[in-house]
From TrEMBL:
Coiled-coil region(s): none
Name listed for the protein in its UniProt record: FAD-dependent oxidoreductase
Matches recorded under InterPro entries: Auxin_biosynth/cation_transpt (IPR050982), CHP04046_FMN-dependent (IPR024000), FAD/NAD-bd_sf (IPR036188)
Annotated TM spans: none
Pfam families xref list: Pyr_redox_3
Assigned keywords, A-Z: Oxidoreductase
Amino acid sequence: MTDHRTTVAIIGGGQAGLSASWFLVRDGVDHVVLEAGTLGHEWADTRWDNFTLVTPNWHCRLPGYEYAGPDPDGFMTRDEVVSWLAGYAPTFGPPVREHTKVTSLTQRAGGGFLVEAEGPDGEETWEAEHVVVATGGYHVPVVPSWAPALDPGVDQLHSADYRNASALRPGGVLVVGSGQSGAQIAEDLHLEGRQVHLAIGDAPRVARFHRGRDCMTWLAEMGLYDTPVASYPGGLAAREKTNHYVTGRDGGRDIDLRQFAAEGMRLYGRLASGAGTDLTFAPTLRAALDSADDVYRSICRDIDTHIEAHGLDAPPAAPYAPVWEPDSDPTGLDLAEAGITSIVWAIGYRPDYRWVRVGVFDGTGRPTHTRGVTAVPGLHFLGLPWMHTWGSGRFLGIAADAEHVTDVITGRGGRVIEPAAELARRRSPGPVDAAPAVA
């Protein structure tokens, strides 16, 4: 066993961990970044082949590093994101130890923490005064407990393992879940000509473009990505919200499940249970579609209000009109009869911090914190969805959160990261350009 000492141990070498390292390198603080795989490997390992960002490229910024390509309002593909992220570490030389999997984090009796890990050369320990857990919040794919009772002749995989339509057996595909991954995977399969069945939940949707600009650019300018989670209606409960579905493919467009249905995709409400080849759905399809459209229209109205309040020059609004209505709320499906050979589960992940043996978790296994700072002195989290703002789990908000956490560690103050709203306003000082038409 190899023993090491450091001031700060950062666990996780994705964009969050590297962002924290950038500030510590800047401030000359001794630290180490412990990464179980390789830097940024999650982007290559858990995204499908045709994956694109749903946020515009100009949102991609990390401390001291931002997107500088030719298409700031476009949407990088998976491989482009991997390449862009790979260029970050060489700009500041973080002290990274790859292929070092942390297996235990405990408090030391004399203060500080003990980190145990499996490294390339065997077991190793690290004594650290501070620890930043930057492993994200998506650890264990969620699959219903009754999934093993389904017909073994039907292949089952999680969205993290989906790569492309041709990797699945011929036949129909049931996608379960209509969040960002589920809706985009259903779109990918649909565009490849597969017969898609989609069980939708309560995920909302958003227009890709409205009044001549990308909606996420409008929302950034309006300050939505800078607003602390506690300031949202319902307060911290906002952390349980599902992100709006939309796509960045082919320059970006709406995902309109009604349009997909008009083109032959089969839609259902929430999947309730199943055994053998029989599935049961809750009669929620019509309500789910209507609710998603209501959110879509509400966001457009908020943007309209912003435009009017600030006297901005923008093209007129183009109201959305539904192109399809369900005849009924289907409550049953026979997989064999429908010719379904594969199921893609896209119903999310649950956190798994069992290796963190420090009492900072709530009853659901999630860390309790205030903007990443826990009640245990020296223990911090970073890169969680909705950790502080809507932007916290995205490239757009990670830098500000990393700056806050490292300021707590070092005692240094003074902001260097611009709020997203300021960045958005500087990008669009003049009249708004026309944007592609949407459904």
